[in-house]
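User: Could you check the structure of this?
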Amino acid sequence: MNRLFSIVLSAIYVLLCSVLISDSESPSPDAATFSACRTPVYTYTVVRTYPHDRKAFTQGLVFEKGFLYEGTGICGQSELRKTALETGAVLQSYKLPDEFFGEGITIYGNKIIQLTWQSRTGFVYDKERFELLETFRYPTEGWGITHDSQRLIMSDGTSSLYFLNPETYKTEGKMTVHDTDGPVTRLNELEYVRGEIYANLWQTERIAKIDPQTGRVTGWIELENLLSFEDCRYPVDVLNGIAYSAENDRLFVTGKLWPRIFEIRVK
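Assistant: Sure, the predicted structure tokens are below.
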């Protein structure tokens, strides 16, 4: 009886082993799904560096026709600036009233549009004269702003992006930015690059590449170690500021109180 029981147990063991071996030779559906859904991660190489005013609390950055346009923050210090890329010299500026904390900027046609943080007020300037043309209101905080040639695209520090009419500044759409783990929050400075929205994530050293149709994060650009030890001898704040030149495919990044602007190539 004991011998028969042992034979039965052995047969069951052999059967289980064959099933396990067969299963191990087949790809796991869960593993295949995870591999297919994993968001690509990119790194960078530095093409060149340029001087940057280390007192500038950078909130928005735009590049056009060889010049950088920059919006800076802090109440009492917020400005709109036009600077020379090669030297960092400020060529034009407009100081915001002391009660406003300046945020992101974008150039749309012959206008520069600048957001403010908690005042829910946007400023519209003549691009050439830096003359204030008008102001407008929006219902959220203002963080970053860019455009896709048809709509203004605005962030408010959450996972939401808002689409505004560039003539009336009224909100005409909204979407949630997400990756495989769910909503992606703290979206800050924005730039439209080759059909995608690039967004700084506040308090990180990464940029999200976002599909403007779905809100899905299509890739992460990791920008660790841009600043050297020497660059950090004086106080610096977070990475913030993306500017793109479609004319010759140049990408620039910087941060709040950073002494340098970096032209990078994503790889």
